[in-house]
Amino acid sequence: MGWRSRPGRETYRVGVDVGRLGVWTTYRAIDEQQAGEAARLVEELGYGTFWLGGSPRLSGLRPLLAATERLVAATGIVNVWAYDPSRLAAEYAELERDFPGRVLVGVGVGHPETTTAYATPLEAMQAFLDGLDGARPPLPPERRCLAALAPKMLALSVRRSLGAIPYFVPAAHTAFARARLGPGPLLAPEMAFVLDADRDRARETARAYARTYLGLSNYTSTLRRLGFGDDDIAEGGSDRLIDAVIPHGDADAVAAAVRAHLDAGADHVAVQALGEPGIPRQGWTAIAAAMNG
């Protein structure tokens, strides 16, 4: 596994070049029939990575890769309870053969509230990674990353993968995670945002999205660790929590929140546009322009 210098950072581990900025979405949001169109737009706007969420099969990355020339396609995340590691490794090998250097596999354990098989998450992840290592051919550590929030899973991401891809976190968690990862491993948080100058309406859009995650213990435990209390978590989230996790306003305000994650230690931020049906052309375009301005 190689290492590369980065201005303003010590070093980071080299697996694939994800770039500084990516987008995060699902086929439920954009429609799989529009995958190629969405991927081409993302590449044209200068984003480095297209993160496909919603617990996809790895083969779901193929239309994104086929429609583009340089874009990295990544899962955010494949679920260990729904995949055989040898099958995942075989699917990775097929994509890597056809699109060398452009596939990154995000792996996660999901949530006890949504996965009936959920048990001993750290042990399950370790066993799954053992399966990836033992597959023929294996899925290399530098081509996988872990959905990690808490200290033990963050530590595992250092030992067994390219790094961590936290979801639904404020910049304070990015600083927390970087302190535990050290300077080398990739840290690539997801950041949802609402492009809307009407503060009350933007918070309403953000709360509609946040309610699901505020009912999941993995996320609420993390938020409590960062100083948020029961009043912040109740009823779709307090203004303080919503503003910290899901920035809103004009493109410059959202770009400032992206930079806060980068300043806190992120190597890459995956932005998720809320409140724009279908392919979020306006949101993706505005944030790309603001970040490059």
The total beta strand count reads 13
Cα radius of gyration in angstroms = 18 Å
Please state the second-level CATH architecture: Alpha-Beta Barrel
Low-confidence stretches: 1-12
DSSP helix fraction: 40-55%
Give the SSE string: EEEHHEHEEHEHEHEHEEHHHHEHEH
Layout of helices and strands:
Elements: E1 2-6, E2 9-14, E3 21-25, H1 27-30, H2 35-44, E4 49-53, H3 62-66, E5 72-76, E6 78-79, H4 85-98, E7 103-108, H5 121-134, E8 144-146, H6 151-160, E9 163-164, H7 171-181, E10 186-187, E11 190-195, H8 199-213, H9 217-225, H10 230-233, H11 239-245, E12 248-249, H12 251-263, E13 269-274, H13 281-292
Parallel strand pairs: 3-4, 3-13, 4-5, 5-7, 6-7, 7-8, 9-10, 11-12, 11-13
Antiparallel strand pairs: 1-2
Helix pairs in contact: 4-5, 7-12, 12-13
What key attributes describe this structure?
disordered N terminus, alpha/beta, TIM Barrel, two-stranded antiparallel ribbon, nine-stranded parallel beta sheet
Could you please describe the fold and organization of this structure?
It is built from 13 helices and 13 strands. With 293 residues, the chain is an alpha/beta fold. It has one domain (11-189, 265-292): TIM Barrel (Alpha-Beta Barrel). Strands 3, 4, 5, 6, 7, 8, 11, 12 and 13 form a 9-stranded parallel beta sheet that branches. Helix 4 packs across helix 5 (121-134), helix 7 (171-181) runs parallel beside helix 12 (251-263) and helix 12 crosses helix 13. The longest helix has 15 residues, at 199-213. It starts with a strand and ends with a helix.
